[in-house]
Automatic annotation (TrEMBL):
Keywords: Amino-acid biosynthesis, Aminotransferase, Arginine biosynthesis, Cytoplasm, Lysine biosynthesis, Pyridoxal phosphate, Transferase. It comes from Thermococcus chitonophagus. GO terms for biological process: L-arginine biosynthetic process via ornithine; lysine biosynthetic process via aminoadipic acid. Involved in both the arginine and lysine biosynthetic pathways. This is Putative [LysW]-aminoadipate semialdehyde/glutamate semialdehyde transaminase. SUPFAM superfamilies: PLP-dependent transferases.
Length: 366
């Protein structure tokens, strides 16, 4: 569905705000669909990118460069995966993960979840569940099957010695900000280990946002492959596929993946997040919206879904009219993915604004 009846033309951003072509100011709670984790025009980040543009943008994957070393050093503060493969988008990271799983195990079957969203290229699309994304592109890549998310018994029945990997989102984003249940994640880990399959955590949307570097850390489970994208470069297209096993040189590659500009963007983003403790602070900024026609608020940290009894289109439109940009996840969920630099006080104002709009349009308090 369209986010707004009329598309908004944004022309500049500063911090947690953007301005449209008419000069109106908005609090940006979309952040490029979870991309601008440092907000817009962060001075330290912009300075580093400008400097890199004047120094070296691309080098080619056959060369080493200091920006890659810098990125890996910053990444080591958060995770201890031995190998990092760089691409240009979240869907590319998922494609790499699928390829690596089949190559490593020698098996073909990939198990994904109902309501999952992993991207729009052919392999990632095959793991993505909703028919609206898939229709018109069949036949998709063979070997994929879907099981109900958070269904332990379905997982036990589906995962066998034919399975190469199980891919899942610790918090399903496009599905409506639905966290995985602890028992389900533990079951996936146990079953994949038992049959020699790999566990892939897709953290493209959930990474950085939940109070921990990876949302999977809340479950104290270590997957075999992790994918990241979106906010990891704060706006420069970049993605990571992290593993503890190597892939033979030549089996996978990317012309632009791991270029000096992208590496500098990741290194600078991670350094600022670490220095300002923004990832940990995200957890305390979660808000719970209570208003008429609100079923629940779910998610973790600054990955928030407000589940409604009614379609959310008119609520989203009215919030825009009042200077708040929010996103959707399906027809009945208002989705918030704000910059991590947003303050707790600003999030409380967001809570009040959303509750006010919902109550005004729904005819009173719930």
């Amino acid at each position: 569905m369209s986010l707004y009846r009329k598309r908004l033309r944004v022309v500049r951003g500063e911090g947690v705000y953007v301005w449209d072509s008419q000069g109106k100011k908005y609090l940006d709670l979309i952040a490029g669909i979870g991309v601008n984790v440092l907000g817009h025009n962060h001075p330290e980040w912009v300075s580093a990118i400008k400097e890199q543009l004047e120094k070296l943008v691309v080098a080619g994957p056959m060369f080493e460069h200091e920006e890659r070393d810098e990125m890996l050093e910053e990444l080591s503060h958060f995770v201890n995966y031995e190998y990092v493969y760089m691409g240009n988008s979240g869907t590319e990271a998922v494609e790499a993960a699928i390829k690596f799983a089949r190559l490593y195990t020698g098996r073909k079957e990939i198990i994904a979840m109902t309501n999952a969203f992993h991207g729009r290229t052919m392999g990632a699309l095959s793991a993505t569940w909703k028919p609206k994304y898939r229709q018109g592109f069949e036949p998709l890549v063979p070997g994929f099957k879907h099981i109900p998310f958070n269904n332990v018994e379905a997982a036990k029945e589906a995962i066998t010695k034919e399975t190469a990997a199980v891919i899942f989102e610790p918090i399903q984003g496009e599905a409506g900000i639905i966290p995985a249940k602890e028992e389900f994640v533990e079951t996936l880990r146990d079953l994949t280990e038992d049959v020699g399959a790999l566990l892939i955590a897709d953290e493209v949307q959930s990474g950085l946002r939940t109070g921990k570097f990876l949302a999977i850390e809340h479950y104290k489970v270590e997957p075999d492959i992790v994918t990241m994208g979106k906010g990891i470069g704060n706006g420069i297209p970049v993605s990571l596929t992290m593993t503890n096993f190597d892939v033979e040189r030549g089996k996978h590659g990317s012309t632009f993946g791991g270029n000096p500009l992208a590496c500098k963007a990741v290194a600078t983003t991670l350094r600022i997040l670490r220095k300002e403790n923004l990832i940990e602070k995200a957890e305390e900024k979660f808000i719970e919206v209570k208003a008429k026609d609100v079923v629940m608020t779910r998610g973790k940290g600054l990955m928030i879904g407000i589940v409604m009894r009614k379609p959310v289109g008119r609520f989203v439109e009215e919030l825009q009219n009042r200077g708040y940009l929010v996103h959707t996840a399906g027809q009945r969920v208002i989705r918030l993915l704000p910059p991590l630099i947003i303050s707790k006080e600003q999030m409380n104002k967001v809570k009040s604004a959303i509750e006010g709009v919902i109550n005004d349009l729904s005819g009173g308090e719930g």
